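Weekly puzzle thread! Below is a chain. First person to post its structure in token form gets bragging rights.
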Amino acid sequence: MCIVCAAIPGKPIQTLILVTTSSVEISYEPSDDCDDSRAMKYRPKYREFGQTKWTSMPETSNSTQTFSGLAADSVYEFTASAKYQGGQWGPPSELLHVKTKRTAPGTTYSVLL
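Winning reply:
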């Protein structure tokens, strides 16, 4: 049981699940600052490393998020905020840095029109 909970919910925890040449899948867990801090929604966002503009994803109640359409062999930063039961948004998670996989040499792709 939590005796004293933080006035502001804690940062969600991000865990890397899968990395491909063009996508990254991340799972989210609520902060463990307090036993009754249950995240109701997450607000994920990402950017290519070195850029200043974030790309925001739609708020989601899913505990996983797939970021697709990423460039191969590139580093991205990911973060998310969690909305807790009281309706309050907590601070953003620590940045998660992920490098997408390289495209194999000689790989060709077909484009369907």
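Puzzle host: Confirmed. Bonus trivia for everyone else. The mean pLDDT is 85.
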